[in-house]
Fold this sequence. Notes:
Helices cover 74% and strands 0% of the residues. By secondary structure, the chain is an all-alpha fold.
Amino acid sequence: xxxxxxxxxxxxxxxxxxxxxxxxxxxxxxxxxxxxxxxxxxxxxxxxxxxxxxxxxxxxxxxxxxxxxxxxxxxxxxxxxxxxxx
Length: 86
């Protein structure tokens, strides 16, 4: 892949920051939901856990991944992929 093609694929630092802020917001939402669920475990269903997993996976793939890649490119460091997908 040429350097020009690589440059076109990267996102600017402001977009990376926006993605990371979005990830933070969505993770807070999941934490708030899980906190409410553990107050009354009788309301927790497997669908709730599946929804939380889906949101966290979406945050990882659509916000944290691209954000980390953009910041890694900006500071000239390699990012590592160490997450198992089901």
